Amino acid sequence: FDAAERVMDVQWDNTIWPIIKDSDFSSVLELACGHGRNSAKLLQHTQNIVLVDANASGIEACRLRFAGSRASIGYHVTDGNHFRMVPDSSITFGYSWDSMVHFDKLVVRDYLFEFARTLKPGGTAFLHTSNYGAIKPNSSWTTNHGSRSDLSRELFNNYAAEAGLSIEFQRLSGRADGWGVDDLDCVSVVSKCY
Predict the structure, then answer these.
(1) Which of 7, 34, 55, 66 is most open to solvent, judged by the fewest CB atoms within 10 Å of its CB?
(2) Distant-in-sequence, close-in-space partners of 165: CB < 8 Å, separation ≥ 6
């Protein structure tokens, strides 16, 4: 967490913020919040955020980190493929950076359906996922570069369409974003179609 925290400002300023700056931050959900390095940036733009993580230790770290915040912050531990505790059509902006790249492709599919369920009509989600499956399909994250899953952009797009989400923005991410391998990841903004 400490190493990732040190590069957060550069990633936010150079990669993330230029893509999400026009988003509606009225009601935000961050998936896989970890110890809150992204959450701290998001809290500069919202007063209403839901933090979800599969690790109770991450949620507890965020509770401590943001204890003095005036924002409305919901903290939830998930079993790893849903956020059922979040009401339907209640989120204007979903977010996940530097976590979903490690998720099994079927878990990513499940979460895309969850974003489709929880986003308000016209809501968007910024999602950073693996594209390593385009390089090495049907491989194991345990041996893949950067512990990336074998998800590909093409498969992500198929899952998004199946969930009823539209791709509003997408690009491959690699060396220019600090990942060490070109086209290693995919950065997408999806929107709720209905």
Answers:
(1) 7
(2) 112, 115, 116, 125, 190, 191, 192, 193
Distance CA 83, CA 157 (A): 21
What's the DSSP call for residue 79? -
pLDDT in tens, 95-132: 999 999 999 999 999 999 999 999 999 999 999 999 99
Sheet holding 185-192, edge to edge: 72-77, 48-53, 28-31, 91-96, 119-130, 185-192, 165-173
Output phi, psi for 58, to 5 deg: -65, -45
Cα 186 off chain centre by: 11
Q: Which residues contact 26 (CB under 8 A, 6 or more apart)?
A: 46, 48, 92, 93
Instruction: Give the count of alpha carbons within 13 A of 157, CB side only.
Output: 14
Whether residue 189 contacts residue 126, with contact meaning beta carbons closer than 8 Å, is answered with yes
* pTM, entire model: 0.95
Query: In this structure, are residues 31 and 62 in contact, taking their beta carbons and an 8 Å threshold?
Result: no
DSSP state of 88: T
| pLDDT band for position 179 (cuts 50, 70, 90) | confident
Say which DSSP state 12 is in: I
Q: What's the pLDDT tens digit per position in 131-145?
A: 999 999 999 988 898
